[in-house]
Structures are given as C-alpha cells and as structure tokens.
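Q: How would the structure tokens look for this protein?
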Amino acid sequence: MAAMFYASGRNDLERSSSKKLFQEAQNEGWISKAEFDLFEKARKLRNPLTHFRTPMDEELPESRAFSEGSQPHEVVENDARQILEVVFRLVERNAVS
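A: Here is the predicted structure in token form.
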C-alpha cells in the first residue's frame, strides 16, 4: 500500500502506519469500506504477535484460545488464514497482467 501511494506521488505517507495507509486508501477510493474492515481486522490480529502485550492480555492468542476453549495453535492458524486472505486480495488487486 505504501508503494502504491509513493508511486502516485504521496511521499507524505512514507512512514505511515498500516491503519493510516488503509484509511487513506479508502479515502482515495482504492479500497471499499468492506475491504478496509478486512484490513483492519488483519491488523488487529497481527499486532499482538508483533508488539508487546502484557501476559494474559485479552488480545493474545493464548488468552483468546482460553476464552474460546481451543488451543493457541488453532487460534494462530485461523488468524494466519484470515490475514493471508486479506494479503492475497491486495496482491491480486495490484498484480500486473
């Protein structure tokens, strides 16, 4: 997304967060509200894995697994599938034919 903005002359977004990039993409009409919601969901699934959370934070896969009565690896696997679907949508949208 950042590369698309850069290519269109939007140098002001060079170090923007993914949330900001998704908001700007929606504002530009590059993605729909439904796509924005999918990207936002993927971002929220990813963040607890890449940014520190205190032990037992409700966003952690382990905490979510406990509350859902499942195993942490199942939660992570389901999250990964959802994130990959979102990523593939973006890649498909920008693929060169």
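Residues 88 and 94 are 10 Å apart (CA to CA).

The chain has a mean pLDDT of 89.

Upvote if useful.
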